[in-house]
Amino acid sequence: MRxxxxxxxxxxxxxxxxxxxxxxxxxxxxxxxxxxAEPYIVYITGDYSGPISTNTKSIDAGIKIAAEEFNxxxxxxxxxxxxxxxxxxxxxxxxVSLLQQRLSQGRKPDLVYxxxxxxxxxxxxxxxxxxxxxxxxxxVSTLLNDPAKFPYHFGISSPGKDYAPALISxxxxxxxxxxxxxxxxxxxxxxxxxxxxxxxxxxxxxxxEARYEATALDMSSQLNQLKAQDxxxxxxxxYGTAALYVxxxxxxxxxxxxxxxxxxxxxxxxxxxxGAEQLKNVNVVVSSATLSSSExxxxxxxxxxxxxxxxxxxxxxxxxxxxxxxGHDALAVVVYAAREAKSNDSAKVxxxxxxxxxxxxxxxxxxxxxxxxxxxFSYSPTDHFPTAGADTFQYVPxxxxxxxxxxxxxxx
Length: 412
Hints:
By secondary structure, the chain is of the alpha/beta class. It folds into two domains: 13-160 and 298-388, 3-Layer(aba) Sandwich (Rossmann fold), CATH 3.40.50; 161-291 and 394-409, Response regulator (Rossmann fold). Helices cover 33% and strands 17% of the residues. It has ten helices and 16 strands. Strands 1-3-2-4-5-6 form a six-stranded mixed sheet, sandwiched between helices. It has a six-stranded mixed sheet with strand order 8-7-9-10-11-14, with helices on both faces. The chain has a two-stranded antiparallel sheet with strand order 12-13. Helix 1 links the parallel strand 2 and strand 3. Helix 1 (53-71) crosses helix 9 (316-341), helix 2 (92-103) runs parallel beside helix 3 and helix 9 crosses helix 10 (346-353). The longest helix is centred in the C-terminal third of the chain and has 26 residues, at 316-341.
């Protein structure tokens, strides 16, 4: 997910608020406000117990904060928001099974947050498309941005292509001629490689590559293969612990040329797991919005306080406030569209999202900045992902999040 990038019972589905469900569809409108209206059901599926559970719980908390905020102002066109969660353990097969189980249990969800990884999202979208259920997620594979195939799915995080310009700018300023990339041999890694390959070659530089299996614990042979071709810089892809194994392998072979992490690899807490020598010449890409020196959304301070007083406050120092905002903003943009459409019907919400009016004043979503300068939800019928600004991302040394969830690059 951006650096925003960008992380229950095993089979059970639980609700934040328990309200009676009926067998009618969840994609239409319900008249009236308060107790007479059907609930507006938001279904979150993600890894709540595995390696990326901290990320999932941060996103989950952000969605629930948003639900409380919007319920206090009338919900979604008079319908109170109810949040349900399912632990798919980042397993596409399990995610599909849990969603099918949920769909057989009465009124279907109005909105789905479809998983913690692109692989899970891709497994769920065919089902959600057939059911005409709107989904908004933080996973960013280019395969997800296909409105013809997945007309009801929208991205909330910057797609991978929006991170590439920051790397190209650095490469040009340093006179790089050849860039190597090591990436995971799965849908997410391959998507990242395609994006950077296109950007590097489009800028007139040579691109070389190697891949590793997602379950690998040592990537030394692939790195030595790239090293033998004498590149000027190294681009690294990895998610979760895979990113740690990539960095350890790089240090093991003693290769310290300038290294740049893609948006997924940048999310790993390197300073907590590696020493300075292992991180020599390593840079991570972060959103300008996550740096305390940037101009901040007027509602951000209040949002951070809600995070810190909530049940998963500890995540703010490991994931930053950005992942909480990923969840919050996913619900916020749909609520805004539904209110603008004056309807909860999925087709009408979809159409409004594709022509979303510019908010007056600060937007309801925090990650975009006070004026929406960092991220614009200018969706269209052919593009369901947001657009980043020219100064949205920058490379900095690996750092940590401070007590308020802002990224602080290491000064050592």
